[in-house]
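W.,

You were right to be curious about this one. When I first looked at the sequence I had no strong expectations either way, so I just let the prediction run and decided to look at it fresh. Below is the sequence, 216 residues in total, followed by the output.
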Amino acid sequence: MSTTIRPTPATVWAEMREGNERFVAGEPRHPRQDVERRNELAAAQTPRAALFGCADSRLAAEIIFDQGLGDLFVVRNAGQVASDSAIASLEYAVAALDVSLIIVLAHDACGAVRAAIDSTALGSPELPSHIWRLIARIVPAARTVLRDAGGDVDPRTLDAEEVGREHLKNTVDDLLASSRLIAEAVAEGRLGIVGANYRLSEGTAVPHVTVGLDEA
C-alpha cells in the first residue's frame, strides 16, 4: 500500500516559482488541463496551495504559475483584503484540503491601493460605502508610508508600489493574527505563507514576505 508524502511548504513554493518562470519565458506547459484531469477531479480535490490574490483581471492565478485544474484553491477580492470571508475560505483550504502553502498575491498599479491612497487626501471625494469598507483595510499601509515620508506631503504623490508592499506585509500579518488555525499550522511547520508582488509587464511573481519557508 503506497503512502502519499505530503509536500513541504518550500517544495510547493519551488514548484510555483518554476511554473512562473515558464510563464515569464513564454514556455508554459499548461499541465493537467485535459479531459482526463477533469474526470479525475470530479469526486474530490487535493490542491497543493491556496492563492489569495487581488481580483484584478490580469492576475489569473493558474496562468501566472502555469498550473492546472485542481492545483490551486483560489480566493480573490479587490486589493487582497483579509476580510472574514477570505480568511474563512483560507481556513477551509488549510483544515479541509490540507494545503501546504498560502500565496498572497499583490500586484503593481493596483486600483484598490491607489484608491486607498487618494482617500487619505483632504477633500477627497466620497466613495460608495461598500468600496470604502473594502479599501479602508488598505489605508493603514498608506498612512505608514506617509508617516515615513515625513507626513507633510500630499498623499496622492505617494509611491503606490511602496504602499502596496506595505499592505502586502499587513495582509500576511492579518492572516496570522486573525486566524488561530492558520497561525498554528505555520507554527507546526505544516503551512507556509508567501507574500508576493506580481509585475504586470514582466509576468514575474516576486516574493517580499515569507513565513514558515526556511528554504525560501
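Here's what jumped out at me. Strands lie at 49-54, 72-77, 101-107, 192-198, 205-211. And, maybe more interesting for your project: The chain has a mean pLDDT of 92.

Coffee later to discuss?

I.
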